[in-house]
Amino acid sequence: MTLSGRRLSRSFFARPTLTVARDLLGRILVFDGKAARLVEVEAYVGDDPASHARFGQTGRNFPMFGPPGFSYVYRIYGVYDCLNLTTEPKGFGAAILVRGAEPLDGFDQVERLSGPGLLCRAFGITTAHTNLDLTRGPIAIHPGTPPAPRSIGRSHRIGVHDRRPWRFYVRGSPGVSGPSGLRT
Description:
This protein is mainly beta. The protein has one domain (10-173): 3-methyladenine DNA Glycosylase, Chain A (Roll), CATH 3.10.300. The chain has helices at 10-13, 17-24, 116-123; strands spanning 28-31, 34-45, 71-76, 80-86, 94-105, 140-142, 152-155, 167-170. β4 (80-86) and β5 form a beta hairpin. It is globular.
């Protein structure tokens, strides 16, 4: 797959998080010779009870408060790394968790990219890749082709007690994670 050098600009990420989350669907995540189409994301904003930013800036979550368009990678359960993309103006803690993608190029086999931990493992993204500039660093988001509006689903986030409908996904995509009732 040939991608132009064009990446999404900082201004793409410097918008309200829910707008950016929906607009990320269909975009292309590129890292280390691999590319995949984004098909599932979740938004985490400010004092949202499920957000790492809810208690303010820390040594772990500082990328969420930095400029928009940076990576924030954290580890859960001591095993899985999770890639987030920062949004909103500097000083406001917000990010979008990349939950699922469809492999396009660079994968040795048909790898499952449904779920943030599987996605990061397949790409080789770890906590060492946190706070990288998406507009010029090794992790890039390319324009791709956004899905038709009617094919975009919205639901509550997976594994979060808060029921805000801040999860966006492409209906019918094999890269979408979660219980079957949340895939359609």
